[in-house]
Amino acid sequence: MPDGAPGGRAALGRVVRSTLQIGYARFVAVSAEPKPSSRSRALCAAVSSASAESLGATASRIDSWILLEYRGMWDRDVLGASLLPEGMKRHIREQLHELRPSRLLFLKKPERRAHARRRVWFGTSKPGEERFFKLEVDHLEDLREFDFAAALSGAGTPGVPLDHPLLVVCTHGKRDRCCAKNGRPLYDALRRETETDRVWQSTHVGGDRFAGNVVVFPHGLYYGRVEPGEVGSLLAANAAGRIDLERYRGRAAYTFPVQAAEHAIREAEGLLGIGDLALVRSRATAEDRWRVRLRGEAGVYEVDVEAELADEPVFLTCGAAEPTRPRHFRATAIRRVR
To answer: What is the residue-wise DSSP string for 253-285?
Structure first.
């Protein structure tokens, strides 16, 4: 149609401009105000660090783990969006339900892309019962009939017991930009400082705003804000059976109130050994209030813990749609009761 014709492109352009001038947004029911992009905001880990948000009592609550070497793309929905057969996905979900509280992690190493076989780890990080096993399979689908829950309950397993620490570093950029930005240099630094078989990249472990995040198995110890230049002290502490308290987020086997109590006792008493404290009990005393007892070599400690919301709302992840006031757990009193 010619531009000068009554119904031509020029006329159409005039109509479009006129429509916009009288408020096009009203007619299509969208906001005319531009919405800020999440990519234009400060990174969530930078905001958390700048505000000196406490790392303590932020570890995910997990007892049992299934770790699969998966070399495909890691989407936000790790299992659902994977290329594993539906029957395999269903089996993994059933096993995770049986083992709850549990978590599936996909692991990878860029340097293993050409390897034919796949590594698999599974285990528990319950205090006093910590144990992990390793398998190698030709295809992950070979695990479709494998009963992880039965193997961990003592029914026997072809898995080889893990006899060294396993460190996983969250590099899950599809989940949060901070995990990729902070996690990949951290992974490289750890790989240079320890045996390569002990360090793997991982999908989401929880707590994106505390990246770089490391989880150390078999104990399920969470560390956050680990810088590449700090890996030596973390590795040395773990090799000596100690907690690196400055970067310690908590132990996965403990609830948030117990993590807060454990951290407070360790800080007050200088107890850094991984096994220096054992949970006796934890009970709620009121809404958002708990009393926790942990046993150490010197006796039993009783800690009052409370939860409170932060004063200011923040974006808890880089992709969060709305700011939220994070919930923090802190010890308010420590006593030795026996």
So the answer is: TS-HHHHHHHHHHHHHHT--BTTS-EEEEEEEE
